[in-house]
Amino acid sequence: MNDETEMRQKLVRMGTLLYTRQLAHGSAGNLSVRLDDGSILITPTNSSLGFLEAERISKLTPDGELISGDRPSKEYFFHLAVYEERPAAQAIVHLHSTYSVAISCLCHEQTDDVLPPLTAYHVMRVGKLPLVRYFRPGDRALADEVRKVSRDNRSMLLANHGPIVSGASIEEAVYAYEELEETAKLYFLLGDRKTSPLRAEEIAEINRAFPN
């Protein structure tokens, strides 16, 4: 089994997992992986992550030209921006899951990190979660903002839209996305109760023990 065939099948499996877990719905959201030759596999436009077909997944050049498969997600351009800025990123998950999108709709006084570090696993897998200002779906200007935020962050939240999470593998990106959604749930469950998020020194210790 060659790398591309394996990655296509992994995208199908992960899409099914996310759809089954109700993190993806309808035809919203997209997944991508970067192959060893630099080309990108990304889920097609208007496709449901729960019903992907491996041979129809889009294959793009690093510049976004379609090589094979169906037309790519209309949001492929911000995937390319992340890959361009983060050489270690090999996979990206972007979904519209309920609790994370709810966080993106709130007013935030500070936008450099919009979820508190409630758990060590959120710090380890998600890191800081900056909020990117609103752009309409498909607006190419979003790519510049995503590229800029990607320089220092492996995760981000698009205002009134949803998260973008990158990882060294599709599995790592999916697990990080799941952790993000669970932290968002905790945030709403805790509500206005007094909480004790991790202190700066505790976060620094985690980052030393588990570097990105």
UniProtKB/TrEMBL annotation:
GO terms for biological process: pentose catabolic process. Coiled coil: none annotated. Residues 9-188 form the Class II aldolase/adducin N-terminal domain. One of its GO terms (molecular function) is metal ion binding. The keyword Zinc applies. SUPFAM superfamilies: AraD/HMP-PK domain-like. Keywords: Carbohydrate metabolism, Lyase, Metal-binding, Zinc. It catalyses: 3-dehydro-4-O-phospho-D-erythronate + H(+) = dihydroxyacetone phosphate + CO2; 3-dehydro-4-O-phospho-L-erythronate + H(+) = dihydroxyacetone phosphate + CO2. InterPro entries: Aldolase_class_II_sugar_metab, Aldolase_II/adducin_N, Aldolase_II/adducin_N_sf, OtnC. Its cofactor is Zn(2+). One of its GO terms (cellular component) is cytosol. Belongs to the aldolase class II family. AraD/FucA subfamily. Catalyzes the decarboxylation of 3-oxo-tetronate 4-phosphate to dihydroxyacetone phosphate (DHAP) and CO(2). This is 3-oxo-tetronate 4-phosphate decarboxylase.
